[in-house]
Amino acid sequence: MSKSEITLVIADDHPMVRAGLKSMLAASRINVVGEAGDGQGALEMVKKLQPQVVLMDIRMPNVDGIQALEAIRAAKLPTKIIMVTTYRSTSYLLRSLSAGAAGFVLKDISREELLAAIYSVADGSSLVDSHFLQDVLRSLEESEGNKEESPELVEPLTAREMDILKLMVEGLTNQAIGDVLGLSAGTVKGYAQTVIHKLDTTDRTQAAVKAIRLGLVK
């Protein structure tokens, strides 16, 4: 395996979907090392093959994708999981993120977007379909009575960190945030990691959701 190659498992109960995803990933630096038809099969395959990334369908028989995700995280396996679904479900998104998903994409995603998602997650970032994420954040912002009581953070966010957080909530990449604020992408990445830590979350998406729920960002 070359250094740039990414090993990946596809978990979906429909053979045609697995074949379609595998075809989309052809002629890339992604090596599909296995396929599974349900969550239990995905869990066993991850334990055996330890791929870098799994594309995990949510709705599968026996053990569904979120249950498999929870089992993989509980086993402390390093594999990154991207949840894949047809359904624009806020519940699915929030449950997936809470269970430790590194990404969440819809099945109508383009080949270029799918490749970008896999590369991003394999590189240690988190990625959620940006349009869907904005829909979820708007629904959280508009719903009544769902804001948590806003406790003082152990380490308050600085003015610059608040600037970064607001743009993270808008779904901007590190490079795009840097372009807006006149910073390098590397500097933005450092700020973003500090914001994620101060909010006691594990990735950008969870930080954005928590920021809305706490009323830090409107």
Structural class: alpha/beta
Total E-strand runs: 6
The arrangement of helices and strands along the chain is EHEHEHEHEHEHHHHH
Q: Largest sheet, if any?
A: 6 strands, parallel
Between the first and last Cα atoms, what is the distance in angstroms? 46 Å
Strand proportion, as a percent range, falls in 5-15%
The CATH superfamily of the largest domain bears the name Response regulator
**Roughly how many Å is the radius of gyration?**
18 Å
Low-confidence stretches: none
CATH topology of the largest domain: Rossmann fold
**CATH A-level architecture of the largest domain:** 3-Layer(aba) Sandwich
Overview of the structural elements:
By secondary structure, this protein is α/β, with parallel strands linked by helices. The protein folds into two domains: 6-128, Response regulator (Rossmann fold); 146-214, Arc Repressor Mutant, subunit A (Orthogonal Bundle), CATH 1.10.10. It has ten helices and six strands. It has helices at residues 15-24, 39-49, 65-74, 90-99, 111-122, 130-142, 159-169, 174-181, 185-198, 204-214; strands at residues 6-11, 30-36, 53-57, 80-85, 103-106, 127-128. A six-stranded parallel beta sheet has the order 2-1-3-4-5-6, sandwiched between helices. α2 (39-49) runs parallel beside α3 (65-74), α3 (65-74) runs parallel beside α4 and α7 packs across α10 (204-214). The longest helix has 14 residues, at 185-198. It is globular, with a radius of gyration of 18 Å. The termini are far apart. The mean pLDDT is 85.
